[in-house]
Design goal:
globular; Rossmann fold; 7-stranded parallel β-sheet; 40% helix; 11 helices; 2 domains; 11 strands; alpha/beta; two-stranded parallel ribbon
């Protein structure tokens, strides 16, 4: 069985390859727009290609049985057409539910007639690094909703689930909602980071408009308002943590353990 990992030099794709190797897969093809940046072991065949450049895909897809599909909704129709023509039997896609901009990926995969498994990912633990500059320079974080609560997931856990599904059976037609193992507030998130760093950090409550004004130059008007509205919604409707990662792989990364490993990013 030959497995293709797309986006293999991306934050998650790279980890999917690593977990496949750790789980004993010996026929892995890694698709990368920058193959010179890879340093995979010999059992991984690296091929040049890019999901947003569909003309590069037919040769990479040839002979593939199962594929991890990284999120690239701009060219999803062309990508799926190439996968169908190549005879790929099972696509494990990283996508999202109807509230996500990644939902078109799941929809296109379902319509293709190819066997599928959806991995619906929500907020990443790695998004906490958005606070890094504030923490390093001021020892505080300024946001409007300290009681907004969600259950962020480590990218490594997403990759481990993807590798497990790609090598396993019984996953066809399944949609897995992936979160971290616990729900906690933005203020509690900062406290986890404070404990990892070993110094006091303060959560400073500011108005939503103040946060929007600060983030809009980076995120753009649409996404910053979507982000801030989401924070507000999760005050009264906190995200519910699922046990899916642990159920499928045996364990799930806590935010406290993630913070301890990545503490250098905040110092």
């Amino acid at each position: 069985m030959t497995i293709l990992v797309t986006g293999a030099t991306g934050n998650i794709g790279r980890k999917v390859v690593e977990h496949l190797v750790d789980l004993g897969a010996d026929d892995i093809r890694a698709l990368s727009n920058h193959p010179e940046r890879t340093a995979f072991p010999p059992e991984v065949e690296v091929v040049e290609g890019y999901l947003r450049r569909p003309s590069s895909l037919p040769a990479a897809f040839e002979g593939i049985d199962r594929m991890y599909l990284a999120p690239a909704h701009e060219t999803i129709t062309e990508v799926i057409d190439s996968a169908r023509r190549a005879g790929i039997e099972h696509i494990v896609d990283l996508s999202g539910d109807e509230t996500s901009t990644w939902q078109p990926i799941a929809q296109a995969v379902e319509k293709s007639g190819i066997g599928w498994t959806h991995l619906y990912a929500y907020e990443f633990m790695e998004n906490a690094t958005d606070w890094a500059d504030q923490i390093r320079t001021t020892n505080e974080v300024c946001e409007p909703y300290p009681d907004s609560a969600d259950a962020p997931i480590a990218m490594d856990d997403i990759a481990r689930v993807a590798a497990t599904v790609l090598l396993g059976t019984g996953h066809l037609g399944a949609t897995y909602k992936l979160t971290g193992p616990e729900t906690f507030t933005r203020a509690q998130r900062l406290q986890y980071l404070a404990e990892a760093i070993g110094r006091d950090l303060s959560f400073v409550t500011v108005s939503p408009d103040e946060l929007i004004a600060r983030l809009e130059p980076v995120m753009g008007e649409y996404f910053v308002r979507w982000f801030v509205d989401g924070l507000a919604t999760r005050v009264e409707q906190p995200q519910v943590a699922t046990s899916t990662v642990a159920d499928l792989t045996g364990h799930a990364t806590t935010f406290a353990s993630w913070a301890a490993v990545n503490v250098g990013l905040f110092r």
